[in-house]
Amino acid sequence: MNYYVLVAALLASSVEFVEALTIVLAVGTVNGFKPALRGTLFAVVALTVLVLVLGEGVLRVVPLNALRAIIGVLLLLFGLKWIRKAILRFAGKKALHNEGELYEKAVSRLQTMKAGEFEAQATAFNGVFLEGLEVVVIVLTMGSAAQAYPSAILGSAIGLLLVLAAGIALRAPLAKVPENVMKFVVGVMLTSFGSFWAGEALGVHWPLGDASIVFLIAAYLITSVVSVGRLKRGEAKREVA
Amino acid sequence: MKWLKKVYGLFVEDPKLAVMALVSLAVATLISATGLHELAGLILFVLIAGSIVVSVERN
Fold first, then answer.
1. Is A83's pLDDT higher than 80?
2. Rounded CA separation A150/A80 (Å)
3. Do residues A8 and A83 touch, judged by C-beta distance below 8 A?
4. How far apart are CA A227 and CA A23, in angstroms?
5. Nearest residue of B to residue A89, measured between CA atoms
6. Cα separation, B40 vs B32, whole angstroms
7. ipTM of this predicted complex?
8. What is the pLDDT, as a whole number, of residue A175?
9. Between residues A155 and A141, which one has the greater pLDDT?
10. A223 touches chain B (CB under 8 A)
11. pLDDT tens digits for A34-44?
């Protein structure tokens, strides 16, 4: 079991599942839970097929070192996108993600649309498919680069079960989940994994082998926290001036 | 083409940051090719971390 991959997949997937749950709940509240759950089921089936086809196909066709380079680069770009957003959010340059607010917006949009059963189903499908696509990227990239598909799938499955259980118990968007902090941590972890695997595939020797990932995580975390501090200080100086 | 845009958007939010990351990888590869494999790792981290700082400060 690769615990780095498991934890990163669990955190990243949970964040995406929470966002998908918000859309499904909004559709369920406005149009009833039948079309919402049907759309969700279709999206889950489509995503499962995508993982099986891409995962199997890619592993069989592409040589491992080339795969690690491609996947490492993709993971690095994916992680950088998350880390950048998280820094800007914590520095106050971008609005914090608020699940309650997003739920209200989705509900009012669906109410003004006066959507029928098919449109409601399509909305749930789109929401779950698009959020799930990010989970697919995480599972495929980390699973194949670290050759740890079981850990990546298990991490995502635990995330799904936790979010589902919380969603069924609360029947409300999970606004109290510390999504912004989770996104920050995931951004740091994905950037570290991406640097490690892309670098390794391109000829870099990491001094401590796999343990270097821990140092990369710490170093990127420090860089991000320092960046947040610098941006906040810059903003405060501008306000004073 | 719409799906291509979606896939692009999945990985890239700030194109300049993406380019800086790719350049960092290229530089690390070149350094590694000269035989300095461990230094290449350090340079890769420094360049990527620098790219993050530049990207958020430029925002």
1. yes
2. 25
3. no
4. 33
5. B56
6. 5
7. 0.93
8. 67
9. A155
10. yes
11. 888 899 999 98
Query: Which of B58, B23, B14, B57 minimizes the C-alpha distance to A224?
Result: B57
C-alpha to C-alpha distance for B8 and A211, rounded to whole angstroms: 31
Q: Which pLDDT score is estimated for A7?
A: 87
How large is the average pLDDT for residues B40-56? 94
Amino acid at A215: F
Could you tell me where the DSSP H helices lie in chain B? Answer: 2-11, 15-33, 37-58
Using DSSP's 3-state secondary structure scheme, residue A178 falls into: coil
**Of the partner residues B10, B17, B57, the one whose CB lies closest to the CB of residue A80:** B17
Q: What's the Cα-to-Cα distance from A125 to each of A73, A231, B32, rounded to whole Å?
A: 29, 38, 46
pLDDT recorded at residue A223: 95
What mean pLDDT is predicted for residues A134-153? 82
Average pLDDT, chain A: 84
Contacts of A76 in chain B (CB under 8 A): 21, 25, 48
User: CB neighbours of B56 closer than 8 A, spacing ≥ 6?
Assistant: A84, A87, A88, A91, A93, A227, A231
Distance of residue B1 Cα from the nearest chain A Cα, in angstroms: 16
In whole angstroms, give the CA distance from residue A31 to residue A173. 16
Residue A60 has pLDDT above 80, yes or no: no
Torsion of CA A77, A83, A84, A87, to 10 degrees: -170
Contact B58, A93 (CB under 8 A): no
> Does A205 touch chain B if contact means CB atoms closer than 8 Å?
yes
CB A155 within 8 A of CB A8: yes
- Average pLDDT of span A17-34: 86
Answer whether A221 touches B (CB < 8 Å): no
Q: Say whether pLDDT at B22 is over 90.
A: yes
Tokens of A215: 């140092």
Q: Does A58 touch chain B (CB under 8 A)?
A: no
